[in-house]
Amino acid sequence: GVIGSIVSKKLYNDFVKYEKDILKRVDQWYLKMDPHKEYNTDDTQYFIMKYNQWKEAFRDASNNGFVSFH
Fold this sequence. Notes:
67% helix; 6% strand
């Protein structure tokens, strides 16, 4: 599948808009503030790395590009 530039721009804007809230939530996982979540340092670092990679992919694609899934 492919996500084109228009949807990529919307997704990039969503990643930017919600980034602080998402990172706050990840901090809560790391600090064990949610008793229903069991995440360690590697889990949280991996999540943040992937979040940033997707955000950048949609940023790049929003300029007349696309994101391709294979």
